[in-house]
Amino acid sequence: MAREEVTVALLGGGTVGTSVVELLTEHAEDFRERIGAPVRLTAVAVRDAGKARPGIPSELITDDAVAVASSGVDIVVELMGGIEPARECILAAMAAGSSVVTANKALLAEDGARLFKAAEQHEVDLSFEASVAGAIPLLRPLRESLAGDRVRKVMGIVNGTTNFMLTKMDEEGVEYADVFAEADALGYLESDPSLDVDGHDAAAKAAILAELAFHTRVTLADVHVEGIADVTADDMAAARDMGFVIKLLAIAEKIDGSEDSGVIVRVHPTMLPRTHPLAAVRESFNAVFVEADAAGQLMFYGRGAGGHPTASAVLGDLVAAARNRVSGSRGPGESTYTALPVLPIGRAYTEYYVNLDVADRPGVLASVATAFAENGVSIQVVHQEGHGDDAGLVVRTHLATDAALEATVEQLRGLDTVRRVVGVMRVEGDEQP
Ligand code: NAP
C-alpha cells in the first residue's frame, strides 16, 4: 500500500535549518515525486521560540528539542550543532524509531561510534553528508560509490574561512593579522575563531573522512592538528618563488609499513605545486582530492558552507532516508572492519620546505647539509638568499619521515651557523597528478 506521507521534524532553525524549510516548501512537489510520498514537516525546535523567523511557519516552532526528537516521526534532521543537547536528541530520536540526518561534524568526530551503534540497534538510518564540505557530494561517494575500491589517500581543503584567508595572503601579500581582521569583519569566522584558524574544524572533518575512506574508527583525538596562525607573508613569498602555494589541508592516508600498517590523519598548512588541482581552489571554496587503487585520482569541488549549499546536502540525505522509509529498507551502516591503528605523525612521509636565517660566512652550507644528512633527510634543492645580516637558506627535501625532519630541525637549531629556523612546512602533491 502506498505511504500517505513521510513525517520530518527539524532540530535547529538557524542558517541551514531555515534553508532546509524554504527548499522543502518551495519544491514540495518534486520531493513528493522523488520520494513517492509527500513530506510533512511536523516541528522546528529552536532555542529562542520568541525570535522572528521569516521562512519558517510560526506554528511549527517550539523550544522543546527533546520532545520533538522523541516524537517518533520518520526522520529527525539535527541542525543545532555542538555536542549537547544534539547527542541526547539524536539518541532519543533513534530510540523512538526515527532515522536521523545531521550536519554535526563536531559530534560525529567526537562520538560517532555511539550514534552508529544506536542506529544499528534501532534499525534506522544515520546520514551526515553535510557534515564535511557542505554542498559537495563527498561522503556518499566514499561510503557507497567507492565501496568497491581501495582508497589510499584523501587530501582536501575543507575549511572555507582559512582558504579565504590564505588566498588573500597569497594573492595580495598581506600578513596573517590583517587577513584575520578582514575575515572577522566579514563575519566569516566561527564564534570561536580557533575552530577555523587552529584547524579544529578541519580536523573533525578529517576524522570523518578517514573513517569512511579506510573503514576504521577515527576520532578527533586521533588527528594531528596545526593551524595557520604561524604562516607568514614571507612563507607565502618563498612558496610563490618556488612555484608553490600554501593551503590548509586535511590529509588522511593509509600507510603500509613493512612491520605494521595503519592510518595517519593530519591537518596542517601545506605547500602544494601550483599545478596541483587543489592549488586552484580559491577563496572560500572547498575541494577534496581522493586517490584510490582502481579509480585513480578523483576531485570533488564546490561550496563548503552557506545556508542553501549545506541544505542541498541535508536534503539529499533526507530524500534517501525518506525513500528507505517508503520502501521499508535501510541505507549503509558503519563500516570499521579494518580496525587499523592510527599511527603517530612521526610516521608521516612527505617532502619539506625549511627556511633558515644563517650567518654569512664560509662553511654554513656544509654544516647545514651535514645536519640533514646525519638524520637521513636528503636535500632536493637549496636556494641561497641575501648577504650579511639578511643571509638566508631555503631548503627543499626529498621524501622523509616527520620524525627524521623534526630531529634535523632540532640539530639545525643547535648550530652556531644557524641564527634562526624561520619556517618549516610539509610539501605535498609534488608527484604530478
Ligand atoms: P545556527 O545558524 O547557529 O543555527 C543553530 C540552530 O539551532 C538555531 O536555530 C538555534 O536556535 C538552534 N539551537 C541551538 N541550541 C539549541 C537547543 N539547545 N535547543 C533547541 N534549539 C537549539 O547553525 P547553522 O549554521 O545552521 O549550523 C547547523 C549545523 O550545520 C551545525 O552542526 C553546523 O556545524 C552544520 N553546518 C553548517 C554549515 C553552514 O554553512 N552554516 C555548513 C556545514 C555544516 P536559535 O535560533 O533560537 O538560536
What integer is the average pLDDT? 96
Q: Point out poorly predicted stretches.
A: none
DSSP strand (E) fraction?
25-35%
Tally of structural domains = 3
Shape: elongated
Q: What hetero molecules are bound to the protein chains? A: NADP nicotinamide-adenine-dinucleotide phosphate
Radius of gyration: 24 Å
In angstroms, what separates the terminal alpha carbons? 52 Å
Described by strand count, sense and barrel closure, the largest sheet is:
11 strands, mixed
Q: How many H/I helices? A: 14
Q: What can you see in these coordinates?
A:
With 433 residues, the chain is α/β, with parallel strands linked by helices. The chain has 3 domains: 151 residues, Rossmann fold, CATH 3.40.50.720; 155 residues, Dihydrodipicolinate Reductase, domain 2; 80 residues, ACT domain (Alpha-Beta Plaits, 2-Layer Sandwich), CATH 3.30.70. The protein has 14 helices and 17 strands. The mean pLDDT is 96. Bound molecules: NADP nicotinamide-adenine-dinucleotide phosphate. NADP nicotinamide-adenine-dinucleotide phosphate binds next to helix 1.
